[in-house]
Amino acid sequence: MGQLTVKRRVVIPVRAGDVMADFISFNGDESGKEHIGIFFEGKGGTKQHEVPLVRLHSECLTGDVFGSGRCDCGEQLDEAIDRINEEGGYILYLRQEGRGIGLYAKLEAYALQDQGYDTYQANEMLHLPEDGRDFGVAAEMLKSLGVSKIRLLTNNPDKAQQLQEHGIEVTALVPTKVHVNQHNRSYLHTKAARKQHTLVFDDE
Ligand SMILES: Nc1nc2c(ncn2[C@@H]2O[C@H](COP(=O)(O)OP(=O)(O)OP(=O)(O)O)[C@@H](O)[C@H]2O)c(=O)[nH]1
Ligand SMILES: [Zn+2]
Fold first, then answer.
1. Domains of the chain, residue spans
2. First and final CA of the chain: distance in angstroms?
3. GO molecular-function annotation terms (predicted)?
4. For 3, which DSSP code?
5. CA-based, 20 to 30 A from 119: which of 12, 54, 105, 132?
6. Which residues of 162-197 are buried (b: 16+ CB within 10 A; e: fewer)?
7. What is the residue with the minimal CA distance to atom 20 of ligand 1?
8. Virtual CA dihedral for 133, 58, 53, 78, nearest 10 degrees?
């Protein structure tokens, strides 16, 4: 991943106009994936935390747009908007649908999960990586925005590790809530067991 530069910042009122956010596009990503930065000023005034709160959010059409209960993405995105709008910082909305395998392949993986395979096994059965995401692009987005030090809103230790390898200092890991329901319970348990996601379940 080469260097990125900010292309355009446009203010967009979101949440029915209750929240103002800058949507930011970038030059220099040869993949053409149209990753988006979203900046929230925060309401903290002078008391505001100096280090911005940042969420790297991988695209999930089914969860983010349609509120699918098979994952926790839609609720995590809502939570991220609430918290970052309070505290000030960025959501980097990364076009890495299905952990990088794409939407059609994710649906194939869901069909395999319906036959009893877990979320990582299903990808492998499709001869696709368990997790194909490279968060280096997020590090380059942050650098182009002049951000070198962040607090990271995530339960996924791999995101922090990859950012640090690409020169971003992560001063704190801020966990998201655990958005568990009857449909995503085993998906979330698998992430905790297989990829060390820091998820604490109330029922254990
Ligand atoms: N291949 C595959 N992808 C999935 C499945 N369920 C959800 N996803 C994708 O997983 C990604 C989840 O992204 P995030 O919420 O940013 O990341 P995370 O790794 O869960 O880490 P957190 O920061 O703790 O939320 C999205 O791209 C979803 O489309 C699945 O069963 N199979
Ligand atoms: Zn999802």
1. 5-96+133-195
2. 42
3. GTP binding; GTP cyclohydrolase II activity; zinc ion binding
4. -
5. 54
6. bbeebebebeeeeebebbbeeebeeebbbbbeeeeb
7. 156
8. -160
Please list the active-site residues. Answer: 131, 133
Strand 169-174 to 89-94 pairing:
unpaired
What pLDDT, on a 0 to 100 scale, did the predictor assign at position 203?
61
Does residue 10 sit in helix, strand or coil?
strand
Query: pLDDT of 28-83, one tens digit each?
Result: 998 999 999 999 999 977 667 789 999 999 999 999 999 999 999 999 999 999 99
Instruction: State the architecture of 5-96+133-195 in CATH terms.
Output: 3-Layer(aba) Sandwich (3.40)
- pTM for the whole thing? 0.93
- Taken as a whole, the chain contains a residue count of 204
The pick from 61, 76, 99, 134 for probing ligand 1's pocket by mutation, whose C-beta has the most ligand atoms within 8 angstroms, reads 99
Rg (CA), the chain: 17
